[in-house]
Specification:
The structure holds 2 protein chains of 2 kinds. Chain A is built from no helices and 11 strands. Chain A is an all-beta fold. Classes of the chains: A mainly beta, B mainly beta.
Chain lengths: 115, 115
């Protein structure tokens, strides 16, 4: 069974640009969540999607957005990049609520560097 | 609000020695608790989880953790460290929100294993 796939793995952008990251969940998983990992702030929850709807959102500015497609694939977008957005962005998928206990299956992440 | 505290950002042990990584949580309801491991340049991988069944939970790679409600702790242990155990370890508590689960992660503990 294929795992969670994130693309691209590495990317470099400059301040003011925007970036789109992609995540393909494990087959059958309908929930996709996104996390930002930095040395200073640790692992922080960005948002979670289920059946193309955002169910929960973390405490991040509106520059961070996401969406989910009918095949459960998800994208996140960061507009007007700032130096502080440099981080490892992790995507995780999970089974629908009621069938699981919240176990997350993570991709390898997309490492974003903002210059 | 739920929180997770991991005592010690770095833990250093010799190969073959006992591994003890500490995690304390705050939660107003019985939680779902998890330990994840992250190897360099990779995503997080589930080690074990507590879901209100047995208080002693066994995971992969010889790790286990004991849920102690009176101490609000979920410490991770392994009897004998191996060089391959060197990684970052994260404790997480899940809370149900809007029909899904939102994780709160600890800041992580880096396990260093000396030969």
């Amino acid at each position: 069974k294929a795992g969670v796939t994130q693309t691209p793995r590495y990317l470099i952008k400059t301040r003011g640009q925007q970036v789109t990251l992609s995540c393909s969940p494990i087959s059958g998983h309908r929930s996709v969540s996104w996390y930002q990992q930095t040395p200073g702030q640790g692992l922080q929850f960005l948002f979670e999607y289920f059946s193309e709807t955002q169910r929960n959102k973390g405490n991040f500015p509106g520059r961070f957005s996401g969406r989910q497609f009918s095949n459960s694939r998800s994208e996140m977008n960061v507009s007007t990049l700032e130096l502080g957005d440099s981080a490892l962005y992790l995507c995780a998928s999970s089974l629908p609520t009621g069938l699981d206990t919240g176990e997350l299956f993570f991709g390898e992440g997309s490492r974003l560097t903002v210059l | 609000a739920q929180s997770v505290t991991q005592l010690g950002s770095h833990v250093s042990v010799s190969e073959g020695a006992l591994v003890l990584l500490r995690c304390n949580y705050s939660s107003s309801v019985p939680p779902y608790l998890f330990w994840y491991v992250q190897y360099p340049n990779q995503g997080l991988q589930l080690l074990l989880k507590y879901t209100s069944a047995a208080t002693l939970v066994k995971g992969i790679n010889g790790f286990e953790a004991e849920f102690k409600k009176s101490e609000t702790s979920f410490h991770l242990t392994k009897p004998s460290a191996h060089m391959s155990d060197a990684a970052e370890y994260f404790c997480a508590v899940m809370r149900g929100v809007g029909g899904s689960y939102i994780p709160t992660f600890g800041r992580g503990t880096s396990l260093i294993v000396h030969p």
